[in-house]
Amino acid sequence: MRVSESLLVVSLLAVLGVCVLLVIVTAVRRVWGIVADRRRERLEKPVRPLVLMMAADSDDDGDAYETLAAVPAATWNAIEPLVVRVLGKVRGDARGALIRLLESHGAAERALARLGRFGAVGRARAAETLGLLGSADAVAPLSERLGDRSSDVREVAARALGRIGDPSVAASLLPVLDGAHRVPATVVVQALLRLGPPAAPALVPALADPSDVVRAEVAETLGLLRAVSAAQPLIAVLAGDPLLEVRVRAARALGLIGHPAALLPLVAAVGRGSPAGLRPVAATALGELGSAEAVPMLTALLGDESHAVADAASLALLHLGPIGRAALEEIARSAAAGAAGTSGGHEADRADRADRADRADRADRADRADRARRAAYAGAALSAARLSAP
Q1: For 131-150, what is the mean pLDDT?
Q2: Which molecular-function annotations from GO does this UniProt entry contain (predicted)?
Q3: How many whole angstroms separate alpha carbon 286 and alpha carbon 297?
Q4: pLDDT category, 295, cuts 50, 70, 90?
């Protein structure tokens, strides 16, 4: 019994000792942080205006650059985070001068070394610095960080690769769209867009990727890149991908690319037998193609029973320019003339109605309804265009 009590006392003392130690460590770290911040502020303050002068591209005689390039290591360590932050906000000559300043202090080499550090914050900051510097030597190490255990590091690495702009990394960015090491699709797509059209050939094979997410995002990206070379593969995706969302994005991409070969596939996609979610997107894409051959199909779609399809068709006609607007105006005029003619002959029509066959009567009413529906969408589109005109 006494042994048990002794063990309990020892355990409590041990726990108390650990708690006291944690409090001391926390307090020391806090004090150390305060001291470090004050020291950094003291070192940064005299040279901070020089950094801002360079960012404003006001260092005409180069004195600010020369002074900052010659500061001691301790001062540079204090000012470097500010220089990196400013670098992400400037363009042109000021950006070039700040990059030369960072390189003169070996910032790229230190960032490469920090990419392998234990702390995720340090790795993320290093990846950001390398991306801002646009260092070609950092492409391979940053590509490895796409598999980092930290989602923050993976995201910053993807952005950095986009900033560097080497099209050869396009394929390495795709696996992070799905799976265990995922990066938000908006980040990956933005990085791919920064790589530009030269990245398109590496993306096309991914239209057959087993991942639905990868196929969908790649289809959308190829459209945003206006990748003409991807038109035929996207047409195949539009016709045959097993997932509707991928087909929808392929239709949208084909409209953005504007390749004439997409006309007939888009006409087929907007047909009544296509999925409801695909038809309005295909109608919009037909308008973006800019082809006069799309006018008959789009005018016919104004009478579609689906509001989304009819509305998309009216806006697509407006998007076609003068030829589309002329078609809308003709529909509106025909409907007005038909309404006037109908009112005059309505009584006669009533007198003859008893002699009409039921089938002819139904066809007549359906035709009137179709014309009225198309005229309504045409009028609405024209009114919207007039209201939005400057």
Answers
A1: 93
A2: oxidoreductase activity
A3: 9
A4: very high
CA angle 65, 70, 73 (to 5 degrees): 120
Q: Does pLDDT of 29 surpass 70?
A: yes
User: Could you report the per-residue pLDDT of 172-207, keeping only the tens digit for each?
Assistant: 999 999 988 899 999 999 999 999 999 999 999 999
User: Which residue carries 């990066």 as its tokens?
Assistant: 183
State the sign of the Cα–Cα–Cα–Cα dihedral 195, 285, 219, 146.
positive
Q: List, for residues 67-119, the tens digit of each pLDDT value.
A: 999 999 989 988 998 999 999 888 888 999 999 999 999 999 999 999 988 88
Among residues 132, 141, 143, 140, the alpha carbon closest in space to that of 175 is found at 143
Which one, of 184, 289, 276, lies nearest residue 231 by Cα?
289
Taking a C-beta distance cutoff of 8 angstroms, is the pair 118, 130 a contact? no
Length of the chain equals 390
Strand, helix or coil at 225? coil
Residues 169, 171, 177: CA angle, nearest 5 degrees: 110
138/377 Cα distance (integer angstroms)? 55
Cβ-based burial of 307 (10 A; exposed 0-12, middle 13-18, buried ≥19): exposed
Q: What are phi and psi of 220, to 5 degrees?
A: -65, -45
The number of angstroms, rounded, from the C-alpha of 36 to the middle of its chain's C-alpha atoms is 40
Structure tokens that stand for 56 in this block: 């404003």
Q: Is the pLDDT of residue 31 over 70?
A: yes
Torsion sign over Cα 118, 124, 129, 134: positive
Residues 6 or more apart whose Cβ sits within 8 Å of residue 319: 284, 287, 288
pTM here? 0.77
Helical (H) or strand (E) element with 196: none
The pLDDT of residue 143: 95
Task: Report CA-CA distances (Å) from 212 to 15, 155, 179, 216, 315.
Answer: 52, 21, 11, 6, 30
